[in-house]
Amino acid sequence: MAKVLMKGNEAIGAAAIKAGCKYFFGYPITPQSELPEYMARELPKIGGIFLQAESEIAAINMVYGAAGAGVRVMTSSSSPGISLKQEGISYIAGAELPCLIVNIMRGGPGLGSIQPSQTDYFQATRGGGNGDYRLVVLAPANVQELVDLIIEGFDIADQYRNPVMILGDGMIGQMMEPVEFKEPKQRELPEKDWATTGTGGNRKPNIINSLYLAPEELEEHNVKLQAKYKTIKENEVKVESYNIEDADVVIAAYGTTSRIARTAISQLEKEGYKVGLIRPITLWPYPYSEFDKINPNCKGILTVEMNTGQMIDDVKIAVKGKYSVYFYGRTGGMVPTPNEIIEKVKEVYGGEK
Amino acid sequence: MLKDKRLRFIIGHYGSGKTEFSINYAIKLVKQDKKVAIADLDVVNLYFRSREKTDLLEKLGIKVIGSSIKGAAVDIPAISAEILAPMQDASYEAIIDVGGDPAGARTLGMYNKYFVQGEYDMFFVLNANRPETQTVEKSIEYLRKIEDTARAKVTGIVNNTHMLKSTTVEDVLKGQELAEKVSRKTNIPIKYISAIEKVAKELPKNLKGEIFPMTLYMREEWMV
Which residue, of A102, A156, A314, A350, is most buried by count of CB atoms within 10 Å of its CB? Predict the structure, then answer.
């Protein structure tokens, strides 16, 4: 298929349908409302269901039900709406159900603003809901990667029976870029023999549940979950790096911010600075080992985010105290400019190239 | 160029490039020493609206009219009453940047009395690289639906077929083929062929419609 121009939010809908998702439950919120609108228009055409629930809490529990029945299902929202979904997300993780949850982040806390932010990093990677659970968190930096990760995200969810979150900022949702819909790499996916599809009188009922009242059983369940998370950590880390073996300063950034950093790096190179980039594509599992490849004489790692410092915690874990870690961030819906990043890199350089 | 009617309404499918075209149009017009106003009627889109470029436009001497509520990032469909100024004051050359789709054109209903035949232009911005306007049938469907909602007739087509900064001559010519078919079926002339400057220079000169070189004011340097 030839390239077309799509807004991020529309592209998410098109990619999900391409991945075989026929069910969407959600509630509108800026800056992702084009996505439910797209699904409302397109899903009925393919015999699917779009349902605007009475609230985000209802929507995520509808996702729980649909995922329990074994179908590919998605919900989407933006920051405050994702906060409302946390209880359901924890239940879904506990019941080991595959689904896709899209968070197109806006400024916070509370209702915040409608402009782009990355302030939900903690919530996405540390879990806003209760319990020792993990989401696979995918952070696209452009609309093409968004499409590719949505399609692969459904496979990851099915492979591990785990909810997957797409974490994009408002800019990714609203920006228009060229995209094409490629055939995804085929993964070996297990049969959904656990789904509640009716026994036909031939087997015992399947039960979808996250309640284990006996402590021994709940501990056993948690051990099983942790073993699964370990496998995901081994298999599913995605990261893109640029020139880190040779860099005097390395920037760590994801999503939109990584693109602005990349523009800053091109400019700095023209001025003779050697700056690398680590761009995590999976925020959980985090690409900690990528930081081991950094030039041992690097002057410091600069984390750039559209928040007041969240991923910086993972960067500090990754560098194990070997390098000084610096931060630059804008918040409230402000987007950093390449020039601001250039100035900060020069500060880390400390005046000498 | 730009010898259009005093009131120019810019409509089209969501994401067709109306705002970028409107801003370019206003800037070209003010460079001809005209008294120019640009009105942002977009209540559909919340990012990438012309009001974000208020500072740039005002420095050039263009009057910018946006929401009645201050702030570029407001999620409220409020339109300033000031929009009537350029409609009533005939000393203004006005560009009215309308929201995308029939939903966005609904705001035009309340200005119906200013749509006097022969005294306004309404340009339909067409981008053949947008999935919803790749065929003649779909493009005409959008055009007619917007006309119905706006209660006014389109007077010209703008072929704005692009792939952002990576637009090629082929993109524009593909769009031109679509625009010509739409034009033939609807009897609406192609007024402009808009393209980024390096592509505009390379276009054949015998195309229907005037070549309209564009600067991408809405795209930040880090965007493609």
Answer: A102
Enter the ipTM. 0.88
Interface test with B, best of A105, A113, A176 (most B CBs within 10 A): A176
Q: Six-digit token pair at A274?
A: 């050697």
Angle between helix axes A8-18 and A143-160 (nearest 10 degrees) is: 40
**Going residue by residue through chain A (353 aa), what tens digit of pLDDT does each one get?**
689 999 999 999 999 999 999 999 999 999 999 999 999 999 999 999 999 999 999 999 999 999 999 999 999 999 999 999 999 999 999 999 999 999 999 999 999 999 999 999 999 999 899 999 999 999 999 999 999 999 999 999 999 999 999 999 999 999 999 999 988 788 999 999 999 999 999 999 999 999 999 999 999 999 999 999 999 999 999 999 999 999 999 999 999 999 999 999 999 999 999 999 999 999 999 999 999 999 999 999 999 999 999 999 999 999 999 999 999 999 999 999 999 999 999 999 986 66
Q: Could you say which of A235, A252, A269 is where a domain stops?
A: A235
Backbone φ and ψ of B159, nearest 5°: -80, 105
Q: Which domains does chain B have, with CATH numbers?
A: 7-214 (3.40.50.300)
Kindly provide the b/e burial profile for residues A65-85, where b requires at least 16 CB atoms within 10 angstroms of the residue's own CB: ebbbbbbbbbbbbbbbbbbbb
Put simply, the answer to whether B46 touches A174 (Cβ < 8 Å) is: yes
Task: Write out the residue range of the structural domain in which residue A320 sits.
Answer: 241-349
Please, how many CA atoms are within 13 Å of residue A103, restricted to the half-sphere of its CB? 33
A31, A142, A176: residue with CB nearest B46: A31
- Contact residues, A window 97-116, toward B, CB-based 8 Å cutoff: 113-115
User: Cis omega (within 30 of 0) on the bond before A285?
Assistant: yes
